[in-house]
Predict the 3D structure of the following.
Amino acid sequence: MLTNKQLSSVIINAIVVKMLVTFPRSIFAYCGNSAWLAMVYVTAVAFGLFSVIHRLYRTDKNVIGLAERVGGTVLRIITGILVFLVLSLNFVSIIRVFPEIIRLVLLQKTYVEIIGTVFVLVVIFGASCGIGAIARVHQIFLPVAGIVFLAFLIMLVPDLHFGYILPILGNGIKSIAVSGLSAMSVFADLLVLNILIPKMKSVESYRKSGNKAILAGGVCSVLIFLFYGLCYAYPASKEFIIPVYQLERLINLSDFFSRLEALFQFIWSISILLYSAMYAAVLAQVWGETFNLHHKKPLIAPAVIMLVGFALLPNSLNDMITVESVINRWIYIGAFLIPIIIGVLFKVKNVSRETKGERI
Amino acid sequence: MIKMLFKTVFIATISLFLSSCVGEEPNDIGYITALGIDKAETGFNYTIQFANPTKISGGASEEGGSGGNIVENIVVEAPTIYSAISHADSIVSKDLSLSHAKIIVVSEDVAREGLGGITDVIARNNDIRPDVYIAVAENAGEYLEGVKPVIELNPVKYYQLTYENKKGGPVPQNNAGEFYMAYTSGDRDCALPLAGVAGGKEEGGKTDAGSGQGSGEEKPSENDKNKEAKPNNGGFESGTKNYLPGEAGVEIKNKGETMGLALFDGDTYVGKLGSSDADIYNILTCNIKNSKVSFFDKSNPHVPITISLEEKRVPKITIHKDSKTVEIALKLEGELLSAPKKHQDSKDINIKTGQMVSDATEEFLSRIYGGLGVDLLGVRGKLKWYFLSNKTYDEYIRGFNAKEWTFSVTTDLVLKRTGMTYYY
């Protein structure tokens, strides 16, 4: 069983990981210098949607388990496959982008194939340790990452220019309200929390850890968007592939530490590795639950290798980033809609059973 | 036991892999410290200046260690920076790297055609730091050849200390990152440091070792450009000249000089201003820290008042959008370093010197805005306060003309200290 702290650590990390790679760039492209406002807005929307979802899941079953209760094996398999697809699409870009970033930033003369292979092996090994172990490491690691993140923000203060986020509404209210909604993808990982419901100690854990994760993840995301917007004026801010890395490059501590990005990138890499291992383990669990398989560990390696195959389909990193921004634009709909539809169907069925006097 | 042995062997193997230098050794790399770009008949002439590690690593006790031996220059003709480095790689035994490059010097001809291409290289390249300096020189190659650090053993340190110039003074505090941001955002126009070479022939021969800076191998040469510099009119920086680089030193060994402003409209070089103008620019951008400025007082024209100026607050800039006027309130603190004995009243000095700063700043801004149409203060960016969205702002800014704006400056200069003596 996972504690509330472990659960919220896992989801906070999952939300923030997207900020560490290419995600913020596309939001700046849509919303301009008001990307941070879009992030505030989607955090509020995420709170609203989650408050609906957690009310539908006052049970020890996750979305797949509930689907079985509602529509039997057929609905369980359909829901399971859909959940697997949504989670895979949400995760697939990291498999391609992370090794490319490591090559770009830290190991410029190492073949990306070697970095990618090591990354995949580490992910498979990590996922094999099980969700419990991964969640415990998350719980230990997150406070360290939090302190580094705080230090990172403090060191950026001299580079902030308030004028850079003006005009305050950026590309306009419509761009924040409509295009900005694609920023909701950072909260698509709340679906993972739903999958982990059977591993929670109590029904309340889902609500508590979810709210905590949205709040902490949302605050971190808003801060990253705000600091990036304050350091890089629009339209320069939409040009850089890895915004957080661009921020790191601004940091100088006297003459002694002028390349602190290596240290920060090391911490973020651990964060991404933990996230990837967690995702591989969750994907195996989803696949196992979908087809009622008792042993889930043997599914990890095939699932990861299959995703590597998909991740290698785009010809270049630029193509991958384009695909990723398209995925990010729509993925949140699936991530929020599936649990809502299944949850509502379950409630409706419950009500009709209650009215018929059947035992639920 | 076998498990323990396996673990030990595993850890030992990993440690060996982690500690070994697989791939390129630092000794195999040639570190480029500066890059000069001049126009050539076809493409550009790139002057690649790289560190000479044998002269740097030994410190002052080495035979050389000064007089320009710490760097070597090669010139290659190429269409881009990367092809230049690629050509140079086949000339120099070491693999050249830009990771420690501190400055890119471009000639005025190159700068007139726009620095967009160079800033694109800087933005894309992970090796080049955003704080690398870009300077403009009449002839970039000549400047880099003229740089012969006398008291500095590390060429990167030489450029860092010269261009960072933390007191403000005659060098604008802008680097490639600032330029890129100003150019891409369109919020303001940028001023970059000017670099140049002092005139005069080296007399050759040897001076007594230890008589001057460094090892004293070469005699300093007389700078004939010094006489060309224009003296300042008015009260601010009285008694000094408004030097362009190459004009300041009278007798010097290191001929490389950095001072003054290279003004850009977007990414295009449009004009240059001297060292006193750079002082004003640094006051306007709050980069003055203990900078010594002399003021001319009509009541005693032969003895200037010298004040060490410090600016602790960013100037307050109020923009009146409809009347196209800008009010600037400067707040300066000063320490009186020297004054004619007739002065007894500190308030009198405060008012007079403050007025001199205001007059010089207004005159500077009228030349920059009215004359050249360069938005150095970033009025365009500050106008964003008046708009809610980029669309309405863009519509307004399309008709922006810097020449239409006028400035009024007030200066609150307060003498906080008077040195070791009480009287003013």
Observations:
- DSSP finds twelve helices and 18 strands in chain B.
- Chain B has two domains: 28-200+219-275, 288-424.
- Residues 59-68, 204-216 of chain B have pLDDT under 50 and may be disordered.
